[in-house]
Amino acid sequence: MSPAKKLLFSFIALVVIPAFCLLALEGGLRLAGVGTHYTYFNEIDIDGEKYLQDNKSFANQFYPSSLGVAPLNNTLSVNQDQDLVRVFVLGGSAAQGFPHVNHGMDRHLSAHLKTALPNKNIEIINTAMTSVNSHVVYEVARTLPANSADYAVILMGNNEVVGPYGPSTFSQNFLSSLTLIRTLQALKRTRIWQVIAMFVEQAQVSSGEGDLEWQGMQMFSGFSVPHDDPRLTQVYSHYESNLKDIITLLQQKGMHVILSSVPVNTRHSAPFGSRHKSTLTESELTQWHAMNSKAEEAFINENWQAAVTAYAAMLEIDDEYADSHFRLATALENLNKFEAAKQHFELALHYDTKRFRTNHVINNIIQRVAIEKAGEQLTYVDNVDVFNAASAPYAPGLDLLHEHVHFDFAGNYYLAREFTQAIMSDIAPSEQYKRLAKHQTAALIGFPNHETNQVMERMLNMIQKAPFTEQSNHIELKAHTEARKETLEKQVGRPAEVVERRQSIVDKGLADWKIHYELAELHRFLRNKEQHYFHLSEVIRLYPHNHESYIKMAEYLSAEGKFSQANAHLQRSLHYTRNSVEKEVQALGWLGLNYMKLNDYFKGKSYLQDVVRQYPEQIGANIRAYGLLVKYARDNNQNDDLRQTVDAVKDYASALIEAGRDKEFPLLYRRMAQIMTLAGESEEAKHWQALQTS
């Protein structure tokens, strides 16, 4: 055999055949329904129309599924009409609206645009997620359908170090090669990789590692990345490349990009970590500590000039200690030296070793990319400059943000105002439009409300954990948050007062579906059934894609004995379960019960049997379904069904006990005794009661 043929056969044996086998295996796994896709949206069918719906598995390619990092709920029509203006929002938790997810920037933006464009339908689709960085946002942009929106707002940069593939992440190793990162992500999209990952995950569980649980920022707080860490060069390079590619992808898909710089709290967010410079000698460190004691004493006693002198002297010894810059800035501000204070606030951010905030390097990259891509369906909004102006003469702080990066009402207002101006400049550059004041925006989005009280309670709990407790101004942050919480609670008032405040925008036809949802719940609390029903109907009319709306309406109608109407809403709810087993089981079991109450035994039986056949892991729902099947089989003299169901539930319960799963449902024995009593099996009932006792 000639050398050429040997080379050809070797290539076929070593490359072609293995590649063919892998492709065949991949295709087989896909055909068998193994694994999942990682596009941002699923395409679903509702009444013959195609819709896009968020894919709750999307972020599982970056984070363990047990952490629950997932997109917000969004369902939108594939087909856009000419009267629709649709905007995608891309970014992390700040863009998502945390902690006020229902009063975040996207809700503000919707109110602003609806006021500016009263003859248009406005849709703001928020694709932002907690703890994601540009690597994740790139995958969002890559998988968004073409021509699915008119505008895309990009507000990202806080999580570049702590997010996936960053130096401070906990879930992957830092990778310096962007090509390697994207190759790895491509492999994760294969079903072969997913099968291997599934076996690895099972091995970890069996070895006792268990599932990770979300613990917020403290999950990332153990990692320090000083300003001179060589990995930061790659972080910034990755960010710039990702940002450019994100913009290009969105533009290629027909979207005008609104690119924003990222404002953060420099004035009231002390560094999360400080480090002495590596060249500091022992004698210098001793001298520094002595000065620090004097500086702290002056600071605590509000002797600002002495504090400035002491901290300035400390920085002569060590100009890289972040908290010295922060304390000096605070002292300078109290002497009305605002520009000098701002410089040191920025230096405190620059030297902060726990990098939870966008810094000047990333914002400079954003500005540079905006200049490079100017005129290519892109508008740059310098929200850093906007925040500086809004807070002047001070640096941005707790007047606009809750803590280090998440925006309060005022911060979200300014962001939305500027994004609206950018969009209106593109849609109608020569036309004047109606601009909203803060109080008008608050009325239109219903801020604050009773949910706000809960949000502020969670915020207060959050800042009493690491890394916030490691900040030198933690006491002040806690005091401010408590005061803000108390102020908002007073503004909210009693349910009847909230209803009265909302009535004017309802009367004017300006209430969005979330206002109506809030009012429906308030009227339910106030036991005003007519208004409860009215507002639920308005919710469904204005936004027919919210699962909870259908469940609330089914509750109301079922209580009124209108089981057929309730069932119609339960059927609709199944379009919005997003593969949540609990929600699917709830709707199916409820449908079964309602059909039984309508004397449609066989249809009710069908739904209840769907529960026990398709969802055997849901123990409580199964026992309830079996109980209903027994009751209505007996009531309808379906004796064969009764015997079969009694046998089936006994087998099911026995299997649970044998597997040791009875502990998952402590009421198992009591419920079995009740079912046996319903079935007329008195001896069996006594048997299960005895097991309960033992």
Automatic annotation (TrEMBL):
Pfam families cross-referenced by the UniProt entry: TPR_6 (PF13174), TPR_8 (PF13181)
Molecular function, one GO term: hydrolase activity, acting on ester bonds
SMART domains referenced in this protein's UniProt entry, alphabetically: TPR
Name by which UniProt lists this protein: SGNH hydrolase-type esterase domain-containing protein
